[in-house]
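Go through this fold for my students:
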Amino acid sequence: MGGPTPTVAILMGSDSDLPTMAECARVLEGYEVPYDIRVLSAHRSPEEAAAYAREAADRGLRVIIAGAGGAAHLAGAMAAHTTLPVIGVPLDSSPLGGFDALLATVQMPPGVPVAAVGVGSMGAKNAAHLAVAILALEDATLRTRLQERRRKMAEEVVSKAATLPQRLRKILEGG
């Protein structure tokens, strides 16, 4: 394959989850973190999912991000077969708008933890940011990138806050 060894896995239970989980990839690419992306199902391909989790560390992966909707078992299934950190992204693919996936993701049994982020694309983005923070514990270059991104975010907030009075005045004056 040629490129650097992936350190983060982006997994999803169905290819219909790709538009949301692509937000993980977008964030990781911004940090220049190599990733592997796959469809694995805790229910429809359980043997493949378990094997992937068991072999993940040996392949150089350091964090697994797993997005799933409905019963959202993928993250828990990954955590059951690896000691790597697993981040679950609840997806809003059911009639309950992701609430069922959120509850399934956060209710792991003691000793088999899954970190849970928000539902949908916001959660997918934050899962990638959390994966970067985990990797940055042992990677000074990545830690610098993370600090720089946070600094830029703070500057943007301060800059927007400075224009608030003028923007409010325009709204109050009807235009």
Observations:
- The radius of gyration is 18 Å.
